[in-house]
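Milestone 3.1: sequence recovery, worked example.
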């Protein structure tokens, strides 16, 4: 189980990451919708190559927004795990019935990916089974 000081550290990391991603999502969404400062659409490209490039860039940006929204959902779930006092406990190890000592996600991993729900070993297995 993590100490209160450690939980506070991870809450701050999650809050900073959430704020940054929310800003990114807003900015990217505006770019994808191709709006100017007045909120009206910019002029459309007149050449087919420009249209193809613009469409590709828009799709790429929308995929990135979708990915970042997924991370935002993971962050919200991490806040729920903090409330439930299960933050830092590996979901994969818990499901596999491993001993409590092995079921903790290393703090170094949580500092890099504060919304992680699995230890490295369980995450590797999960990705291989995808």
């Amino acid at each position: 189980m993590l100490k209160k000081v450690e939980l506070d550290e991870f809450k701050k990391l999650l809050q900073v990451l959430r704020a940054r991603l929310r800003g990114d999502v807003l900015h990217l969404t505006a770019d994808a919708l191709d709006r100017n400062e007045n909120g009206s659409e910019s002029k459309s490209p007149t050449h087919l190559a420009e249209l193809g490039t613009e469409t590709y860039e828009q799709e790429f940006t929308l995929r990135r927004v979708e990915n970042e929204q997924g991370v935002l959902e993971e962050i919200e779930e991490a806040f729920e795990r903090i409330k439930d006092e299960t933050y830092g406990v590996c979901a994969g190890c818990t499901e596999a019935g491993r001993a409590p000592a092995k079921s903790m996600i290393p703090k170094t991993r949580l500092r890099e990916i504060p919304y992680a729900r699995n230890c490295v070993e369980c995450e590797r297995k999960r990705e291989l089974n995808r």
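Residues 35-41 have pLDDT under 50 and may be disordered. The CA atoms of residues 5 and 74 lie 22 Å apart.
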